[in-house]
Amino acid sequence: MQNKIGKQTLRFSNVNILSSSSVVGEMESQGPLAKEFDELYDDQYMGKDSWEQAELFILERSLDLAIKKASLSATDIDYYLAGDLLNQNISAGFSARTLGQPFLGIYGACSTSMEGLTIASTLIEGGFGKYAMAAVSSHNATAERQYRYPTEYGGQKPVTAQYTVTGAGAIIVSAVPSDIKVTYATIGKIRDLGIKNPFDMGSAMAPAAADTIAVHMRDTGRQPSDYDLILTGDLASVGYPIVKELLKRDGIILGTEYNDCGLLIYDRERQQVFAGGSGCASCAAVTYGYVMNQLIKKKLNRVLIVATGALLSPVSYMQGESIPCIAHAVAIERKEN
Amino acid sequence: MGTYWTAFYVGGLICVLGQLMIDIIKLTPAHVMATLVVIGAVLDGLGLYEPLIKYAGAGATVPITSFGNSLVHGAMLEAERNGVVGIITGIFEVTSAGISSAIIFGFLISLIFKPKG
Amino acid sequence: MQNNKYKSLSKQLAPTTPILRNCVVAFLVGGLICVFGQFVQNIFLEHFNFTAETVGSPTVAVLIAIAALLTGLGIYDKLGQFAGAGSAVPVTGFANSITSAAMEHRSEGLVLGVGGNMFKLAGSVIVFGVVAAFFIALIKTLWGMF
User: pTM of the prediction?
Assistant: First the structure.
């Protein structure tokens, strides 16, 4: 069983990234990474009638862009994996209707991007197809109206709250050689240390991130310093110090190579985003936009993307349950490594 | 019925009470509103809310606590005329304007405006 | 790590809520909304046929209409984030909770969307107010009888 190493990590020898895409909305197009995204929209409705239709629109844009950048057509995609934050994954399902290719809907909350990339990589590594595409979307208004309050409601959000990223990201992997490969994926386990507050996701998700990072390092025999960049998906300013502390107590030091997508995508001083970004697109837009650009330009050689998700529902929260969380890590490297 | 100054500081203090419930007890806004309405109802039951209205005017009628006060008032008005049955027939008598206008204006605004996010 | 140990670790590393700033702003904004209410009330008392007993209704109706409009214009949510309880506790907050829910669910149609969801946030205020008022009035009436 040479493709599984350690307890939870998969090793890939033949998974290449052909292309990726990132599409974002208003807040993100005013943030520090604006130049790194493929398409920017300053109208949160994207010209559509509802928030949900707007989210579907940017997800479909991300698919079109990824397919075009790989010089493929939709019918070349052997498997399409997608997920979003909405009930019954409607953005993913409806985008699959448009794409028309074999589809697997997946749900990992904000960790869905790396969950999708992991499964897509296994399909390619196993020789089950030539091209696999994984995508996610999230939208600030659709997340707010489903998980929290109507968007025009005047309820005051606490300092620990996060701002759901409006965006979509897609990635195409294949056995066809390219310079950038997916080398490892560590599938996470659920971690729930009793946090119940849905306005404090960072605290809820940090233990899962720490757990997956620790397992990944032990399974691969690597250190954090072996990576040019380690990014968590959306721990933001609250979860960031907690994950560092938890790993420190476990003997693993996260140094300057560590950052968080939710902190990178916005300028917290200028933009009212509370603790920082969250949502599936927090990890996806930053990874498939900014990080992929740096890998292509050879400014980064080896990165570890750790997407984090909080698996609560509005009902579970109201019934007094705590928030079970998960984190999935994927290592992406330039082939010279 | 109250002066600008008493309306200001009494209304302000009731809001501070709500803010402390949010920040220290960590209640959601919905829980805070429900609690304040019940407090208003209890205070009217004890005969303390009407004097507060005389003193603070809008400082006591504008906060959501006055909603609880009006509900008890309406109930008591009808109960005095018709006994215990009057409680149920009278509850919405005084607050009718508040609830009706909230429904009507809320509905109309939803026809005209789209949420901006 | 045990849950309670983790709770204290996360509390230790958490950002602090600016309680004093929040209370001061809530006091000022809430107070000013009440001052405006007082102004409206005085207009009704002086220029219309309302008495001290009946003036509450039109005053509240005017404030609700204004709050609904501000919600529609997309202003009230910004005020709410700034003022917290200062804009949520006055009856304007009640109007905002109903209007914002109505607006948000318009995409699901008038009957099931607007009509069915309007009281999502405000419903508990009405329910608890009515139930509390029922028991309080009941106790007072029975007390008065014996």
Answer: 0.95
